[in-house]
């Protein structure tokens, strides 16, 4: 339905956009409670302030709100150097199929968080990952892994693993969001007379493992597990913590998380944490995040820039995927 293009009355505007009696034209500014921002018709745009007339509404149509399911994953933290801890995974926020988000017409910026840089000889602690943001949903970047002095893992969506500590002290793991499926803490690292080892970075589902000894002789802790949740229906492993480096043996990275020893990077667009590394070298970088949205296929929504994609999944369903920062547009 639309407001007629001729012989327009206040009742026609009320029929299209809602409202109650008595009718006041001042209720119908664009951006107000009744008319979405950017509403326009064949004769121009509805003003958001100043002079407004019935003629401004000729041919305009009330936009239909769009309901989205979403998966928002932040960037993973970088691993620590000098027998460092693994980077924590980026927080994973998901609503599928329950708890959808409904948005009206407009343009919505989408932030895809980058992964944190790995620790190096000059700065042994890994950097935390960046947040991913869609509308009111924010996923927190994973914490960087600790190095050797300073050795504490950084807090984040999932915490970074602690690095090897001076003397016989414990290198504490960073705290995570603490909610199952979103982000867990990192494991602790340790130095003892026999050697050095870091703790694994936290994953979305489980905490990073602490260093182990004596059976494994200062083995670095494994990264925490992520999961395979995907709103496309095809599981994709994401949000695993990075594995930690140890003097005798390394711990494995979680899903999407980087392997230690060689300073493996977290996998791109998984939010995986970077792997820890040995002294004198650079640890792994965290993997970048991702934002995926699912909505009815009849909605003429669009994404930009072109690196991001819009895909028809089947009758009545479409997937919008942001692998880099961009904009969601709802006409």
Can you tag this structure with a few keywords?
5-stranded antiparallel sheet, 2 domains, 16 strands, 331 residues, mainly beta, 1 helix, 6-stranded antiparallel sheet
Please outline what is shown here:
With 331 residues, the protein is mostly beta strands. It has one helix at residues 10-17, and strands at residues 40-41, 44-45, 66-73, 92-95, 101-103, 106-111, 132-134, 137-139, 170-171, 189-192, 195-197, 290-296, 302-304, 309-314, 317-322, 326-330.
Structural class: mainly beta
Secondary structure: helix percent: under 10%
Instruction: Find the count of extended strands (DSSP E, 2+ residues).
Output: 16
Distance between the termini: 15 Å
Q: Treating each run of at least 4 consecutive H or I residues as one helix, how many helices?
A: 1
Shape: elongated
Segments where pLDDT lies below 50 for 5+ residues?
none
Give the SSE order as H and E letters.
HEEEEEEEEEEEEEEEE
Q: Tell me what portion of residues adopts beta-strand conformation.
A: 15-25%
The biggest beta sheet, please?
Answer: 6 strands, antiparallel
CA radius of gyration is 25 Å
Overall mean pLDDT score?
A: 90
Overall domain count: 2
